[in-house]
Design goal:
The complex is a heterodimer of chains A (112) and B (109). Chain A has 112 residues and is mostly beta strands. Chain A contains no helices and 11 strands. In chain A, strand 7 (65-68) and strand 8 (75-79) form a beta hairpin. Chain B has 109 residues and is mainly β. In chain B, the strands form 2 sheets. In chain B, strands 2, 4, 5, 9, 10 and 11 form a 6-stranded mixed beta sheet that branches. Chain B has a 5-stranded antiparallel beta sheet with strand order 1-3-8-7-6, with no helix packed on it. The chains are: A mainly beta (112), B mainly beta (109). The A-B interface holds A 31, 33, 35, 40-45, 48, 55-56, 89, 91, 93, 95, 98-106 and B 4, 8, 32, 34, 42-46, 49, 88, 90, 92, 95-102.
Chain lengths: 112, 109
């Protein structure tokens, strides 16, 4: 499978716990993006990487959120001290040189 | 002002009809435009990209771009029940992709 891979598909956690999601982009894509999507809304930009460098982070993003992309390959998104408002679909995407964005299947987070 | 605006719908068309989906964007400097289809509970899937004024056709889909009016549209010909989904418009600005809230389309058999 050469598409964008995300794990886990679903995560249920209790409020206050930390969670970490993983994304493996399409191998030849050097740009990787994280988005969050809630019901009835479009994907909301969180952050993006070009290779291992995190080039931009949304101003709306809480300090509880952090992302890494060591060695410019896979990426992780960590949410510390989760809150119920963090419940959403977390989408990872990588972009081709033509700047077309391809999404993984997403991680559905439920914070109880 | 949002970067991308879409009518949330829902839009209903009978099977075999043409579905027309519309999108406006706020930044005249936007260069690249995309349409994504998203089925319920699934992630967005790229349908079309368009970069220059005019029409671009791919099978039953036609994307139309009018930069002067800051307007992008997607036409779906011979609509099928399997086309029932939410359609997201997206634009690029400074390497960021901005998405509209999507238009829900239902094709009635």
């Amino acid at each position: 499978d050469t598409g964008v891979s995300q794990n886990p598909r679903h995560k249920i956690t209790k409020r206050g716990q930390n969670v970490t999601f993983r994304c493996d982009p399409i191998s030849e894509h050097n740009r990787l993006y994280w988005y969050r999507q809630t019901l009835g809304q479009g994907p909301e930009f969180l952050t993006y990487f070009q290779n291992e460098a995190q080039l931009e982070k949304s101003r709306l993003l809480s300090d509880r959120f952090s992302a890494e992309r060591p060695k410019g390959s896979f990426s992780t998104l960590e949410i510390q001290r989760t809150e119920q408002g963090d419940s959403a679909m977390y989408l990872c995407a990588s972009s081709s040189p033509a700047l077309e964005l391809f999404f993984g299947s997403g991680t559905q987070l439920s914070v109880l | 002002q949002k970067e991308v605006e879409q009518n949330s719908g829902p839009l209903s068309v009978p099977e075999g009809a043409i579905a027309s989906l519309n999108c406006t964007y706020s930044d005249r400097g936007s260069q690249s435009f995309f349409w994504y289809r998203q089925y319920s509970g699934k992630s967005p899937e790229l349908i079309m990209s368009i970069y220059s004024n005019g029409d671009k056709e791919d099978g039953r889909f036609t994307a139309q771009l009018n930069k002067a009016s800051q307007y992008v549209s997607l036409l779906i010909r011979d609509s099928q029940p399997s086309d029932s989904a939410t359609y997201l418009c997206a634009v690029i600005k400074y390497s960021q992709f901005y998405f509209g809230t999507g238009t829900s389309l239902t094709v009635i058999p």
